[in-house]
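Q: Joint fold for the lines below.
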Amino acid sequence: MGPLVDFLPNSDRGKAVLNLTNNSTIADMLDKLKIKQRVVVAVNGDEEKGLDHILSDGDEVLVISLVSGG
Amino acid sequence: MTYGYTGKILHVNLTKGELEIEEPDEQFYRTYMGGSAMGMHYVLKETPAGVDPFSPDNVLALCTGILTGTPISGQSRLTSVAKSPLTDCIGDAQGGGYFPAEMKFSGFDAVIIKGRSPKPVYLWMHHGEAELRDAGHLWGLKTGDAEDKLKEELDDKRIEVLQIGPAGENLVRFSALISMSNRANGRTGMGAVMGSKNLKAVVVRGKMKPVIANPEKFKEMQKLAKVNMEPTGMDGFGKYGTPGVCSPQHRAGGLPTYNFNSGNFDKHEEIDGHKLYNEHLRGHEKDDQNRFGRDTCFSCTVKCKRVSEVVEGPFKTDAKYGGPEYETLATFGSYCGISDMDAIIHANALCNMYGMDTISCGATIAWAMECWEEGKLTLEDTGGIKLNYGNAEAMVKVTEMIAHREGFGEILAEGSKKASEIIGRGTGEYLITSKGQEAPAHMPQVKRSLSVIYAANPFGADHESSEHDPGYKAYPERMKEIGLTNPQEKLALNKEMMRFAMITQHLSSAVDSISVCAFVFGASFQLYTPEQLVQAINAVMGWNVDMEEILQVGERRLNMLRAFNSREGVGRESDTLPKKMFNRPLKGGRSDGYFINEEEWEAALEDYYRLCDWDVDTGHPSLKKMESLGLGWVVADNNELSKVII
Ligand code: SF4
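A: Joint structure:
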């Protein structure tokens, strides 16, 4: 889950279904969620999609925060 | 008038009971800036080659930096350096809290400790003065109890204490220095070095605040913390702390599980920062964790420290011993296949009260668990304890036994590498160590540039010595500030990734010398950018340093650490990765099948050496490099070194 879960509306253990307009990009999605920090995004298991990647209906999007310390 | 620093270094000879104050000039501070580099100056000058880590001749340096004690986020850090009893190479460990700032206020920038006291003592530094005091009555006490006693005895609640616990007294090779009973200079066994000197604690108190050269500019830098907080996501980091990365690490396939054999832990949610925050931080019943369950370091607005408690049951735990970091949740948790949060919080508290590094302790137990699962250890070895993966009671019990060097704990107190040499039976196969230091919870199989840093880092496997691979692509503006403009694809292990590794290592190395927090200053997710670190230094010091000069401070420190190892006869042959990372592909999750190709890795290591200007055959720094960093004296002063650094 991580800190990003707080940005998800009605999240169920870090997962949520989002309704986006047609031709929304990853950047649009992050905008809608108000996520401003840098993240790694994987679409349907395919990692490192750019911000301008256009999402399709039913896509599973994984957003991972980048903090590397600990 | 001095800005930033006090200008006073305290030298302590414990054998003779003598204290001396040195006042170096400004050039000294500009060359090293504090922390690790400053400490290495003394370790290289005053420690004889080949010294036994537990000998009185081993020098232990405790150093703050030029920004320590100024009211800005991320500056209250202290670095300890000495030869490590865990790795027999140079040792180095950073820690935060309130001790470093208070030490500066007491009137000293650093303490350089040598010798061995004939009886237990503590060092009391206050208002520009220092004295050694009897610590016979503190020896054997848990850190929390010793701290309470000192506050009573000195009649001052506001003292800060950096101390060893019973583990340091017992020379557990991964003992830590603990302050506030919950902050650790954890790695490489600096607590055992202090224990070998019969020095129980360093206690500080003072009001001598550092003077700031340019208060206007400094105010601007303070305000930037607020501006940067949301866009960097550091507000969320502060809320959930490092534990918030457990689940993301699992999802990326990089949460070390079952002693590093998988990057996938099915029960990751059980050990994640959300669960810790919602169910274990103090104040969670009233949803008031922000007030009661989060703690900070002097003047830091991030507030990432956890205050957790277990109110009942077998793992009942007092909140004064803090809360687990991500590393601790992983090493005592997923490394051991354990998802019992109460048990992990308890093991973390045991490490803080006895004074041990949670990474090496948890990882050593995970190694023993794999040996058990593989049939290499029996009940006879363990004294009747079943060490199967997932056994939380056994993990907690063994942690306690290690601190007391009791039963099987006596062997594990040596660290996993030395323990494997004692036990034999092929148990070395299951090690996850580099230079004998257990690997932290970031997987080189997944973040490939770490594979070379883990191997080549002079004090063993370390995750805070360079930026991690995904940062290169994700933070192009920040990377550009340090000359990195060519991000590579995931899993690349090529020349450009070695440039990334080396340059960010120089920055991290500068961060550990200036002695600031790696969550606040850095080239990726941190609160401040590298350029803003430069500005903060100039605001405090009235200097005009630039990025190049800062990176050079980092490179200087790295080469000092490396030259120390060269002097001990340690070079390329010790720059290795655990065998399993080459020959055992990970199982399950996103990183299923990942391993490191040995040939590709050897080539990358050589690229890295060339970039560093270290000899490809021996791994030693070149004389030219040492001289260009103003370190010619390190070689000239030493016969052994002048034979290998050429
Ligand atoms: S970010 Fe966390 S560890 Fe670093 S100085 Fe702030 S509170 Fe301390």
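Q: Anything notable?
A: The first strand of chain B starts at residue 9 and ends at 13. Residues 240-431 of chain B form a domain with the Aldehyde Ferredoxin Oxidoreductase Protein, subunit A; domain 2 fold (CATH 1.10.569.10).
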